[in-house]
Write a structure and sequence with these properties.
The complex is a heterodimer. Chain A is α+β, with helices and mostly antiparallel strands. Helices cover 41% and strands 10% of the residues of chain A. The longest helix of chain A has 16 residues. Chain A is globular, with a radius of gyration of 16 Å. Chain B is elongated. Classes of the chains: A alpha+beta, B mainly alpha. At the A-B interface, helix 2 and helix 3 of A face helix 2 and helix 3 of B.
């Protein structure tokens, strides 16, 4: 229950979770997430689909008529309550586990002498 | 915005083509979702040059193609259901035994060597066209193998550096042995194995 289940915490996933967690209630559209997490669309969307399948992320269509401003409505993603909880746990776990056993997506904090790279 | 119209149309076309891989119940919605992202990319003011925005949009739709392939594999509607026409229901994963794959590899290697020797005998001068052609082909093949090793998420039996050395040591032979034994097909490499992650 308290893990990502089938979803493995890899570097790209960690980045996406960090972006989503930065403001858990804010909706994000795909290109927005791609830019913020600097991921390719071919990496991001399969990941979002998996997270959605696990019930950690939900999506909703933008609430506007297609011809309002010439722009078609977008689909927005955000973490579910369960997703936010799991993401916090996993990220906390990832930042305490030794760097050598996982892919490091974020630069390790300064001032940690002896941290194996 | 000038010149972005056709690019957007091409990108939309690519997205629509990719969406055809999806099960019918997801197709329309996914296609709408991804097409709706294109205006955001084409009007992204953080990318200054229009040409770079166009490249970005095309790369985006190429990624969508990868995504739909992935989603089709992940959903129950696998390639078998959607493309029984030309696959005949066969499992899409290459799953021949290592022995038979090595045999095929050796046969390919013998054919290549035989062709090379007979052609070079007919044209023995070092700057004749077969000579240059073979050098170019060998270099291209080695480059292909090395890039494949570098991009693979995992390889069989030996570490990546060992396969790279083998490919460099014996020009067609090493690469052929790698392709027949060490290479893991894209479909088989999908399940993640934490041990292989550096």
């Amino acid at each position: 229950m308290c893990s990502l289940g089938l979803v493995k915490l890899t570097g790209p996933l960690e980045r996406v979770l960090r972006v989503l967690l930065a403001d858990p209630v804010a909706p994000h559209y795909g290109y927005d997430l791609m830019k913020a997490a600097s991921l390719a669309s071919g990496t991001l969307y399969p990941m979002l689909a998996r997270l959605q399948q696990e019930g950690l992320v939900d999506s909703q269509w933008e609430d506007r008529s297609p011809d309002a401003g010439g722009r078609p409505p977008r689909k927005y993603y955000r973490l579910t309550a369960e997703g936010a909880r799991v993401a916090r746990l996993e990220l906390a776990h990832a930042s305490t586990s030794p760097a050598s056993t996982r892919r490091v997506a974020v630069r390790p904090a300064h001032g940690t002498p002896g941290s194996a790279l | 915005m000038s010149g972005t119209g056709p690019v957007r149309r091409i990108a939309e076309m690519l997205i629509r083509a990719s969406c055809r891989r999806l099960p019918e119940d997801q197709r329309a919605e996914r296609c709408r979702e991804w097409s709706a992202e294109l205006p955001a990319i084409m009007d992204d003011t953080s990318i200054r040059l229009p040409i770079l925005r166009a490249v970005r949009a095309l790369r985006y739709s190429a990624g969508i193609s990868r995504t739909t392939r992935h989603l089709r594999r992940a959903s129950g509607h696998s390639a078998r259901a959607g493309r029984a026409g030309w696959r005949g229901g066969a499992v899409p994963v290459r799953s021949a035994a290592p022995g038979s794959r090595l045999t095929i590899g050796v046969i390919v290697w013998l054919v290549v060597i035989f062709a090379a020797v007979s052609l070079l005998r007919a044209h023995p001068h070092p700057n004749s066209w077969p000579f240059i052609l073979f050098l170019a082909l060998a270099a291209a093949f080695d480059a292909f193998c090395l890039i494949d090793i570098a991009r693979a998420s995992q390889v069989r039996y030996l570490p990546k550096w060992a396969w790279a050395l083998i490919c460099l040591a014996q020009c067609p032979g090493g690469g052929i042995v790698y392709l027949s034994l060490g290479r893991v097909g894209r479909a088989q490499s999908a399940p993640p194995s934490s041990a292989q992650r550096p």
